[in-house]
TrEMBL record:
<feature type="transmembrane region" description="Helical">
    <location>
        <begin position="93"/>
        <end position="113"/>
    </location>
</feature>
<feature type="transmembrane region" description="Helical">
    <location>
        <begin position="190"/>
        <end position="213"/>
    </location>
</feature>
<keyword id="KW-0812">Transmembrane</keyword>
<feature type="transmembrane region" description="Helical">
    <location>
        <begin position="67"/>
        <end position="87"/>
    </location>
</feature>
<protein>
    <submittedName>
        <fullName>DUF2189 domain-containing protein</fullName>
    </submittedName>
</protein>
<feature type="transmembrane region" description="Helical">
    <location>
        <begin position="245"/>
        <end position="272"/>
    </location>
</feature>
<feature type="transmembrane region" description="Helical">
    <location>
        <begin position="134"/>
        <end position="159"/>
    </location>
</feature>
<dbReference type="InterPro" id="IPR018692">
    <property type="entry name" value="DUF2189"/>
</dbReference>
<keyword id="KW-1133">Transmembrane helix</keyword>
<keyword id="KW-0472">Membrane</keyword>
<dbReference type="Pfam" id="PF09955">
    <property type="entry name" value="DUF2189"/>
</dbReference>
Length: 288
């Protein structure tokens, strides 16, 4: 009896450690990728974007209950960040937070890509089935890409703070109307707007190019983070006009969705997420 009592916890611990080891190994394999998965970049145009948006909207209508369950946390986080900016006296960070928060949007759309993939393959599409696919092979590279986007988001906030300090002399305002009035009625304020928007454009373009197809690829195939990043950049380079147009559509949609306290993102984000999957399917094919 004593031997069995001691043995069971030891056996259980060994099994858990072995499971963790396998999970870490799968995560590392997912990050580095499989040599047999060879992506090929295709040319895409306006017609491909229209088709992707149409299919994305159809996916949203068909899957809206489970989809809304997956994405509702995203606008809540955005709202909480804005509340923090008000309460912490960081009113000048409201716009950078609202404008920069979509930089991490591709992470929130992971479940949407998987739903579209499953619907395309006529597989089960509820959120439970989707979450069950986030194994080490997928989770490892997704978390790696997520950490990269989070670092870019934090860097953007730091850069916008520096622009504010350099132009507005780090003056603190008690309310949003007071800050808006000071910004819109002074040359320093307009300088901050112009410089801030220019810097923000650079960050947005960077995220668009590295995440255009990389996240759907990591869900679809074991290509690994380096190949996914390289392919996304190649798609953006080969399809400059389509990439720029898609970027404007995404920015416009996210702005419209963010205006009513981020609530509109519950609809906009799923449509853009599903559409991104279908655009990826038209932009990338494989030789294996």
């Amino acid at each position: 009896m004593t031997r069995e009592t001691i043995g069971n916890p030891l056996s259980w611990s060994a099994q858990r450690l072995a499971g963790m080891g396998r999970g870490v190994g799968e995560a590392m394999d997912g990050i580095t990728g499989h040599p047999m998965a060879r992506p090929v970049v295709n040319s895409i145009g306006m017609s491909d974007i229209r088709i992707a948006l149409r299919k994305g909207t159809i996916d949203f209508v068909a899957l809206r209950t489970d989809v809304i369950t997956l994405v509702v946390i995203y606008p809540i986080i955005g709202f909480v960040l804005c509340v923090w900016a008000f309460s912490a006296g960081q009113v000048h960070l409201l716009f950078p937070l609202a404008a920069g928060f979509p930089l991490v949007g591709p992470v929130a759309a992971i479940g949407l890509y998987e739903m579209s993939r499953r619907r395309e393959m006529d597989e089960q599409t509820n959120w439970g089935a989707v979450l069950s696919t986030l194994t080490g092979r997928v989770l490892g590279p997704v978390l790696t890409m997520g950490a990269l986007l989070a670092a870019i988001f934090i860097t953007w906030l730091f850069a916008s703070h520096v622009v504010w300090e350099a132009t507005m002399q780090a003056e603190i305002y008690d309310s949003l109307p007071a800050f808006a009035a000071a910004t819109l009625t002074s040359s320093a304020g307009w300088t901050m707007i112009v410089v801030g928007c220019a810097v923000g454009f650079v960050f947005a373009a960077l995220v668009l190019c590295i995440s255009f197809v990389s996240f759907p690829m990591l869900i679809d195939r074991p290509v690994g983070v380096p190949v996914a990043l390289a392919t996304s950049l190649a798609v953006a380079r080969q399809n400059k006009r389509a990439t720029a147009l898609w970027g404007m559509i995404v920015v416009g949609g996210l702005i419209l969705g963010s205006i009513p306290l981020f609530a509109g993102l519950i609809i906009v984000l799923p449509i853009l997420g599903h559409s991104t999957w279908h655009l990826y399917r038209r932009a990338v094919s494989y030789t294996d």
